[in-house]
């Protein structure tokens, strides 16, 4: 598996010696990974998951709160006493103030191992975020690679149609010359003109498709859609891949499958976390308070302060909550079972996709061999037919049919190579070896 992974990147960069003049696939992939908004968003979410993975968030550390208050009062008194025990007391604008400062701490010592399960959950969530980013990057690499080779395919088709147009042009000139000197018919001349126009229209349409594919590629790399670039227009294939190795690698390395396995672990931890809430929770409590008062009333305590330090343990347990705890445990277990089924479903679909893609891959390889032979024959036929047409042995119709066969044979060969390369990229993506 390592061998074809290494070989894949060798073929990702065709004609590396011309890297200064050409946009290689490796450079395109680096640009896409760096600039693609979806990858940036995925990495930001991965960072959030990393930020969540702390001891404090899991509940291992104490919580300490502090409070500080200062109160001021302005009051008035007008008091008289029975029996003249003392003179009336009349005061106004009496200023007093009081202050309070304190801290309180709560530290969970035991919660049925819930904090340990939470810590493991945050760790798996961080791993899941990293794996999802990896999956997004692999999908992007596959898309960039396929589009890159689609550009090559479109360009090869343009060149193929250009060759067909050149033949039509030579035929048109010859038919025109024959008609003008009276050796050919007007029908042959007009037929050659119609066929030339038809081939020119096909070329224009293909050039538009080529341009649109390049625009889509620039958009994929988050570049100016009008930016022009050149690439090595060659579709190279790896040594033939082995289905058994691909399956083995997919079951151990496919990012989507690994993400599903991590999700199952998270659901199992959720079940344990909910179950831990059935056990008692023991907290260490401590606090300190400082109070002071300044009394301006002229009687009682003029100034004073006090401080209090308290500590202790608190134990709590859920005795009955309307069976809500039982319901949450049941739902957590069901979610874990769903996650297990999703893993098996993903394995089934993954192996099925590998089988289908590999059949496409093998068929494309067989077609390449067949169409290579057909194209070689078609090229010879076009040369023979054109020479026969020049000397008047072959008819215009015969030349046109041979020409169409040659263009169609090369088109089929191009399509077979692209199909094989697309299937090859998809097989490596499914096997989890693009990274």
Entry keywords:
Outer membrane efflux proteins (OEP); 435 residues; elongated; 10 helices; 4-stranded antiparallel sheet; single chain; 64% helix; alpha+beta
Your description of this structure?
The chain is an alpha+beta fold. The protein has 2 domains: 2-35 and 112-280 and 322-430, Outer membrane efflux proteins (OEP) (Up-down Bundle), CATH 1.20.1600.10; 64-110 and 282-316, Single Sheet (Outer membrane efflux proteins (OEP)), CATH 2.20.200. It is 64% helix and 15% strand. It has helices at 2-12, 25-35, 37-52, 55-58, 114-180, 186-220, 243-253, 255-276, 324-390, 396-430; strands at residues 63-79, 89-110, 281-294, 303-316. It has a 4-stranded antiparallel sheet with strand order 1-2-3-4, with no helix packed on it. Helix 5 (114-180) packs antiparallel against helix 8. The radius of gyration is 40 Å and the shape is elongated. The two termini are 12 Å apart. Mean pLDDT is 90; it is low at 1-20.
Compact description:
With 435 residues, this protein is α+β, with helices and mostly antiparallel strands. It contains 10 helices and 4 strands; from the N terminus they run ααααββααααββαα.
Ordered list of secondary-structure elements with their pairings:
Layout: H1 2-12, H2 25-35, H3 37-52, H4 55-58, E1 63-79, E2 89-110, H5 114-180, H6 186-220, H7 243-253, H8 255-276, E3 281-294, E4 303-316, H9 324-390, H10 396-430
Antiparallel strand pairs: 1-2, 2-3, 3-4
Helix pairs in contact: 2-5, 3-5, 5-6, 5-8, 5-10, 7-9, 8-9, 9-10
